[in-house]
Amino acid sequence: MNIRLLISLAMMLIISACATTKPEYRETAMLNPEPGFRGDKINAQVVKVENESPNNQKIELMLPEFGTSINSLVVRDSEGKEIRQSKPYEVINDPDTSTQGVILYLDKKHSLPFKINFNDQPDN
Hints:
The chain is α+β, with helices and mostly antiparallel strands.
């Protein structure tokens, strides 16, 4: 075989592998919605919990360093079931204070331990 054909085949294999790679998700430990609570997995911390309305709460989490953005995030209960957010999450990424995290908007009936799964890898 000639060298161009080998290079072309190698490039096709690399492109194919990249296209089928699933995003890698990071996961926190179970977190109690209490200010100061720190999970023992990836060191996520609950910073603030505020009542937004009689039925909704705003929960601010500090997360360990991640990329420039979070591409997807799912909140789960202790059984692994998804907890729907009342509003889309917000990403906190302040390079001046080196603060990174998220703000979640949850129904108060979910005032129970929860964890988040998030993907901070850039989209392909």
